[in-house]
Design brief:
With 433 residues, the chain is an alpha/beta fold. It contains 14 helices and 15 strands. It has two domains: 153 residues, no CATH class; 229 residues, Glycoside hydrolase/deacetylase (TIM Barrel, Alpha-Beta Barrel), CATH 3.20.20.370. The strands form four sheets. The chain has a five-stranded parallel beta sheet with strand order 9-8-7-15-14. Strands 2-1-3-4 form a four-stranded parallel beta sheet. Strand 10, helix 11 and strand 11 form a beta-alpha-beta unit. The radius of gyration is 24 Å and the shape is elongated.
């Protein structure tokens, strides 16, 4: 598929490659030669502001992909084919699909001045997707589906490639055990907290676990493993291995033998990635230590990550990950609400907007996290089951990649999360039915 433009910018090539791969299974071929384009006999797209031959599909440019720098654009959304769009133009499509897709994929709005949330992250309330009520949709994939239909209408001989739906379950191991394998002072402090809060039943529970008479309520690893094998899942595990315990980093220290054994067992069966601690977000040396530590324990090169608390800032966090050899990141989503942060349900390479270049860091966007449903959205297990079904349905409809995040804590036997294990098991069963 030939695409004409007056200037082949990095922004356009990046976006055309992504859309071309999603539509055709290969990038568009770009040309700035109008004569060559005019005489080309195959399917072709004119990405400019005027007609050339009249026989091409015309996508009128809104100008964003030919700009340099970052500006605060006045985005006005409108309805087309039952869904939101922006950068309205003329042509055979009512909007510039390339510019709109780039704006969302690059997370352009996150480079603009914005309000932080209580954890210092980009607040989802700032986003266009939240304000315009399309956060729960993989809008770019939907646009691409419509784009494919327009291409086939114009060029019936054009073969459209449809990707296969894929489900990638992922697990964050923030706190491997509730009671076991913790420093003595944490155990005493936990008992004292239970007394102060009047939660007396937790004291015998803790004693029974520590004495070996009862399984730790967060120890769901055997259950998860059986589920993975029963449904032939191909999950990704992310382990937090901070060198010391702090407010937001509560996992068992990686120097503890039980934690080492846990990581090693999973590393032998599954891809294991780093779950950078809260501390490492302020100290690149700590991040380097954690990646090396996890690699030492697993005996493997660590090349994937997901930020603890989904704490990252563009472009700095991603640049740091790249410099330390991370090739795939699973953090593209919100830690405050479920939905599609980049409005897409397909892996895509990160574009460094300040440097104006596509990087080698491949982003895997998630749309659901158990903690968001429970702590932020205050959903019950039945509401969460409905939410999961929605994300499955919309991602399946566009043959996208559905990525969910679950924690071992939710899948254990802690009474606080009663019913959540069953929700996940039923969901996995329905996906593979």
């Amino acid at each position: 598929m030939l695409l004409y433009c007056h200037t082949a910018t990095r922004r356009l090539k990046y976006t055309a490659d992504f859309i071309g791969n999603q539509l055709l299974g290969r990038p568009f071929e770009l040309t700035t030669d109008e004569y060559f384009f005019s005489n080309y006999r195959g399917p072709k797209i004119n990405y400019s502001r005027g007609d050339i031959t009249g026989a091409e599909l015309r996508v009128q440019s809104a100008g964003l992909l030919f700009e340099k720098g970052i500006a605060d654009h006045n985005i006005q959304c409108f309805e087309t084919n039952g869904h939101k769009a922006f950068f309205r133009t003329g042509g055979d499509l009512p909007f510039d699909i390339f510019a709109a897709s780039f704006y969302l994929l690059s997370r352009y709005e996150e480079y603009l001045p914005h309000q932080k949330d209580k954890y210092g992250r980009y607040a989802h309330e700032n986003s266009l997707a939240f304000k315009e009520n399309f956060l729960r949709l993989p809008l770019i994939n939907i646009w691409i589906e419509d784009f494919g239909k327009a291409l086939q209408k114009k060029f019936p001989e054009c073969a459209i490639h449809r990707a296969r739906f894929e489900f990638i379950p992922t697990y964050d191991i923030d706190e491997a055990f509730s009671y076991k394998h913790k420093q003595w002072w944490r155990t005493i402090g936990g008992m004292a907290k239970s007394i102060v809060n009047g939660r007396w039943s937790m004291i015998p529970d803790r004693v029974n676990v520590l004495s070996g008479n009862k399984k730790d309520p967060y120890d769901s690893f055997e259950w998860m493993n059986k589920l993975n094998h029963r449904y032939n899942l191909k999950p990704q595990y992310f382990f937090l291995v901070a060198h010391k315990t702090e407010k937001y980093d509560k996992n068992i220290l990686p120097s503890v033998k039980a934690m080492e054994d846990l990581i090693q067992r999973h590393g032998e069966q599954y891809p294991v990635g780093i779950h950078p601690s809260w501390q490492s977000g302020d100290d690149p040396d700590k991040l380097k230590f954690e990646i090396l530590k996890l690699g030492h324990v697993t005996g493997k090169q660590i090349n994937s990550s997901r930020q603890h608390f989904i704490r990252f800032t563009l472009p700095h966090t991603y640049r740091e990950l790249i410099s330390l050899g991370i090739q795939c990141d699973f953090s593209m989503g919100y830690g405050s609400i479920n939905g599609f942060r980049a409005s897409v349900a397909s892996p895509f390479y990160w574009y460094d907007l300040e440097k104006e270049e596509q990087t080698r860091l491949l982003l895997y966007p998630f749309c659901f996290m158990d903690a968001n449903s429970f702590f932020e959205q205050k959903f019950s297990p039945s509401q969460t089951a409905d939410e999961l079904k929605h994300y499955y349905d919309v991602v399946k409809s566009v043959n996208g990649t559905l990525i969910t995040i679950w924690h071992n804590t939710f899948l254990g036997t802690d009474k606080l999360f009663s019913g959540w294990r069953e929700v996940y098991e039923q969901f996995v069963s329905s996906v593979h039915s």
